[in-house]
Amino acid sequence: ILNKGNRVPDYLEAAALCIELFVNENEAVYDKREPELNALIRRLEQLPEDEPFKRVFLGEIYLAKASLQGKFDNRVQALWLFNKAYSLLEENYKRYPKFAPTYVPWGVLNAAIGSLPDDYKSVAGILGFTGDISKGLDLVREGYYTCLASTEYAFYQPYFGFVYCYINFQLEGIEEVDLYTLGLPVEQSSFFIYLQSRILLGQGKSKKALSLLEARPNGNQYLDFHYLHYLTGKIALTVNAPSAPRHLHRYLKLAHNKNYFKSSYRFLAWHYLLKNEADSVSYYRNKILAPGENFAGADEQAEVEAKRGFNKLLIEARLKFDGGFYPEVVKLLTPEAFLACCTKPWEQAEFHYRLGRAFQELALRNKAISAYKKALAVPLEQSTYAIGNSALQLAAILEANGAYTDSKKYYQLALKHKGFPFYEGIHQKAKTGLTRLN
To answer: CA 238 to CA 240: how far, in whole Å?
Structure first.
């Protein structure tokens, strides 16, 4: 950083441009500004071969560019860029094993590839990509704290802190870290607010997450992060906030692509279902079922739910669970309610699963175990998220109880359930769990 010609400004400019293009989600804007990004990459390529920052900078930018190409469904180009990033970071780690800035991006790749579902992992292996979850998580942690303690690498702290929290949150690693505990200025950044609100939502602290999102900074100096309107509407719905439809409609109006549109219609349908406004429910259900692309898993899930029909009791319980109102979930999901409202197998599985989740959060482990086993015993023609996550959560409880043999069995069972939206995330977490136990 102290040397002239170090290209840090070019790296930071390229990274900022990638973030802007990723948030903008407009392929036409990407095509227009790609030459600008390529020019910055060429400047980074001018760094000498013996400069370890060269491969780190290029590796990170190639990864970001691969994500952009993937977002626009340019899969061949995305794979080519990912391969370049992988090769650069692997080489740098081998050549400079004590160079801490390599640890975080290389650690992320290791954790991500190591936790891939088997269907994806076999393809990755053919292409020469290998990963290790435990090694990846350790590298991210070591990279963050090493750079934090270094004046020379201090400019990495916000970025590495975000990655450190995100990877642990996404894979449910051993560590429970958030942006506040790392001392980062959460309220000053939409990206920090995005991650911290998701962490809070996972902790059942929806009101805090909603307050954080609704107070996020705005103005010409901030990027238009339209996805946050969708996230805010989703979270507002869990606490029955009247602002939920407004946020969802704002997302539908401003977003540049169709990702999360069907999911937004789903949440709007739920809003009116709870108000017993059947015509509005029918309108938004038809919007979900209308032809359209489903790039996002949430949109695929919305379509699945719209096709099978909405169960008001289960939706109410789901929203109360997401809002952190666990005792209210238990009050809703009574044996009498089960007999009255859950005649279809998918409804029965969802009922037991949601009750198990509530018991789990209330630290009633034995009751949670019983509910998950009931969910897994429901005969279904095909796997669902409720079934896959029942196996995953049951494994986690058994692991916490010290029943490691049974825990492994249910982590392995979770890996057998696939083909439904978001199964990849369940598989990643199951693989992370098995890594801890092996």
So the answer is: 6
- In the block, tokens 């100096």 appear at 221
Return phi, psi of residue 48, to 5°: -65, 155
- What distance lies between CA 203 and its chain's CA centroid? 15
Interatomic CA distance for residues 246 and 240, integer angstroms: 13
**225-262 pLDDT tens trace:** 889 999 999 999 999 989 999 999 999 999 877 889 99
Which residue's entry shows tokens 């949670």?
A: 368
Q: What pTM was estimated for this model as a whole?
A: 0.84
Cβ-contact 237, 244 below 8 angstroms = yes
Distance (Å, rounded) from C-alpha 380 to C-alpha 272?
A: 29
Longest dimension (CA), the chain: 73
What are the respective helix, strand and coil percentages of the chain, to the nearest 5? 75, 0, 25
The rounded percent of the chain whose pLDDT value lies above 70 is: 95
Q: At what angle do helices 297-308 and 261-274 cross, to 10 degrees?
A: 40
> Helices in 215-344 by DSSP H: which ranges?
227-238, 244-254, 261-274, 278-289, 297-308, 312-322, 326-332, 335-341
Output the average pLDDT for the chain.
90
DSSP string, 83-118: HHHHHHHHHHHHH-TT-GGGHHHHHHHHHHHHTS-H
Please compute the mean of the pLDDT values over residues 1-17 and round it to a whole number. Answer: 76
Say which residue the tokens 């930071």 belong to. Answer: 12
